[in-house]
Amino acid sequence: MESNKFFATAPPVKLFFIAAIPGMISMLAATAYGIAEGVFIGNWLGETAFAAVSIGFPFVLINFSLADLVGVGSSAPISIALGKKDQEKANNIFTCSLILMLATAVFMGILMFVFADALVSLLGATGELAALAALYVRVYAIFSPLTTVVFAVDNYLRISGFVKFSMIINIVMTLITVSLLFLFLEVMSMGVEGSALASSLSMFICAVIAFVPFLLKKTVLRFTRPRFSFAMIKEIVACGSPVFLNNVAGRVTSIVMNSALLNLGGQTAVAAFSVLMYSGEIIQPLMYGMCDSVQPAIGYNWGAKQLDRVKNIAKCSFVGSGIISVLGAAGMLLFSRELTSLFVAKGDVELLEMSVYALKLFASTYLFRWFAFATQSFHSAIGKPKPAAILSVSTAFVFPILFVVALWPLGLDGLWLNQSVTALVVCIMALFMILRTQKSIKYYIAA
User: Fold this and answer.
1) What's the DSSP call for residue 365?
2) The pLDDT value given to residue 135
3) Per-position DSSP letters for 207-225, written without gaps between them
4) Residues 6 or more apart in contact with residue 74 via CB below 8 angstroms
5) CB 343 within 8 A of CB 42
6) How many helices (H) and strands (E) does the chain have?
């Protein structure tokens, strides 16, 4: 129960750093193996393979998003239950959530394997591009029951106070992935299936390692006889919906974007968008790792009605997110060529120049995105999924799709600026939401 005591008594700033730094390192490690995949594919497999991964990966992430729906959705109710000293409820949610994730992973794996060709053809991919994208999706589909749980169990480790252990697992996962990428792509000369296999095997190995503390009964959360109820499932789905909708909507938006890119700029534009996502999305995981790591502490104190502590911990998340984002935007502008050149084969001048230009336009996104992201994370932590879901869907789907149409006259520039304009609008929405929530917190403190 040491994690509960720490959440309840540690000074907020100290708690923030102890929880957030390992979480950020974990996500940085996860980002590193994503970047490594992009480097290996871009330099050794070429533009067609890079575009194929860009087309196939959104479908893979939709599968992982379903696991996140349950994993993240169960984390807030578990933390709040622990804050209320209801250990039995926390254990039951934990056990039932793992069963739900396994069942969902089996179903989605079968679905993705059978319909891989049809899914990639929806984007207009044909010939070699379509074949490679479908192959990439099918490898992930085969491993679905063994891999999708890895990110959810990461949340349960942090709730149980195993923050450093979680960090080590993510670092090990990166090292295994990079080693297997080198083995499969460089030594064995495999194609995109080697990339998918490397990631899948590393996630499976680390998922097994992550469960060791739970199997040895070293954690706050314990396996128990599952007792499913409609109310519990409804609560999990409601709390997980912001992250789930963000992930799924983001993937749908990526599909729409890829289709628009094929229309406006062909395969090179799709590859440039993939380069943009690899090099421009380094900051997002850092924010996610930081905010996600302090959610258990916020949820615990919310359940314990320690509202002053809730506000102080949340303030640390907002300040930290702002600092990371502004520094990240500056880094993208100053080192745009160095970043993009990591993912482009030497001699591919057209792809490099297009990617550098796109990243410079995209960089302004992070001047605004951090505030909406921190606001969304805070509302999820205190069990208020509705405002979090609104921000999530607005960021990942509503405004990006709207601005694909509104900025279409600008051609490719409109697509590169899409996320920046979206971030500005959603930032304004988040400001109104957080002010409204602050008033309600003040009311509860006064009462």
Assistant:
1) G
2) 92
3) HHHHTHHHHTT-SS-----
4) 93, 94, 96, 97, 152, 155, 236, 239, 240
5) yes
6) 19, 0
* DSSP at 367: G
Interatomic CA distance for residues 166 and 147, integer angstroms: 16
Structure tokens belonging to residue 284 = 């997002």
257 and 404 in contact (C-beta within 8 Å)? yes
As a whole number of angstroms, the distance between CA 316 and CA 331 comes to 23
Give the tens place of pLDDT for each residue, 111-168: 999 998 888 887 677 788 889 989 999 999 999 988 888 878 888 888 887 888 888 9
Dig out the tokens for 212 from the structure. 């060791």
Q: How far apart are CA 308 and CA 445, in angstroms?
A: 8
User: How many CB atoms are closer than 10 A to CB 157?
Assistant: 22
**How many domains is the chain built from?**
1
- Those residues with Cβ within 8 angstroms of residue 127's Cβ, 6 or more apart along the chain or in another chain: none
Question: Locate tokens 């706050």: which residue?
Answer: 220
Domain range for 357: 2-446
Instruction: Give yes or no for a contact between 226 and 92, defined as CB atoms under 8 angstroms apart.
Output: yes
DSSP 82-98: HHTT-HHHHHHHHHHHH
Residue 369, both tokens: 């995105």
User: Residues with Cβ < 8 Å from 440, sequence gap 6 or more?
Assistant: none
State pLDDT tens for residues 389-428: 888 888 888 899 999 889 998 988 888 899 899 999 999 9
Structure tokens at 356: 């550098």
